[in-house]
Amino acid sequence: MKLAPTSMRGLAALVLLVSGCGAAPAASSGPTTCGPATVVVADTEVTPIGADPGSTLPVTVPSADGKQVTVDDARRILPVNLYGSIAEIVFSLGLGGRVVGRDTSTTFGVASHLPLVTPAGHDLSGEAILRLNPSVVLADGSIGPPEVLNQLRGSGIPVVLIDDEQTLAAVPRHIRAIAAALGVPAAGEKLVARVDAEIAEARANAPTGGKPPRVAFLYVRGTAGVFLMAGKGAGSDDMIRAIGAVDAGTEIGLEKFRPLTSEGLINAAPDVILVMSEGLESVGGVDGLLKLPGVAQTPAGQQRRIVDMDDGLLLNFGARTGRAVQALATAVHGTCS
């Protein structure tokens, strides 16, 4: 069963209901009594605002590490960070044809052919980058090591760091900083207007009646033995609030990410558990997730209300953020028919 895409402009996310309702629910604090067993939100393609607008250079811009950086050539761009959001913004500005490489988190289709500069996990390889001969590198504090970034600067490559705040409010600021560094400020304003409109529409479409559902985001990597619960400042809290829901981790006093405990999750009493798609796969799907401490004892676990979203979209906070919020709202608030 597929839920029809929303009317949001350019929305390509598909919300696929994999299976039906779970068993009859126990008492729940949420507004619904039955929900999907698991929802997969497919990745969306990046849509440029137009053709390459051409750069007006040189420009001198502030870097997030306090340096002033002059960019005089943006013909070979290397955008890298932990979330893939910088590359997403560069492509959305219409500059995808200038990008020479990618990080592990840049997974959208039009960038998938580019060579990796993070061959071992999320660490940058100086040698791999230098082989690509970039004329400018855009990064943030989420990626490193710092020695590689210093090596690049030492070789004469301008490196501009963007601040790494992962919130909805920071998205326009990141777009403007990237557009300024690449000499395309007008294109940046067009992209900001589009993203702001998509986020506003997603917020406006969030249900306002009844008691909002409690949503807990779990970061799980079964192969690495990593099981965390998110709270205030993790980024997921901002996405959850944007869909008119309550972040269960924040409600019990968690900040950022904390080790998952049975007591903590049961106290959080989520109506819905949110995970990344690869994380859910790493623990053996919904059945495997239900074996983690406390999950089966929550209203979400009892009703099998588990929502999983593509890793490259959920906490990306890039140019597709509005579409991600809309798709998440559809999944979380969806009920059985």
Automatic annotation (TrEMBL):
Residues 78-336 form the Fe/B12 periplasmic-binding domain. SUPFAM superfamilies: Helical backbone' metal receptor. The keyword DNA-binding does not apply. Residues 1-26 form the signal peptide. Pfam families: Peripla_BP_2 (PF01497). InterPro entries: ABC_Transporter_SBP, ABC_transptr_periplasmic_BD. Keywords: Signal. PANTHER family: HEMIN-BINDING PERIPLASMIC PROTEIN HMUT, VITAMIN B12-BINDING PROTEIN. Belongs to the bacterial solute-binding protein 8 family. This is ABC transporter substrate-binding protein. It comes from Phytohabitans aurantiacus.
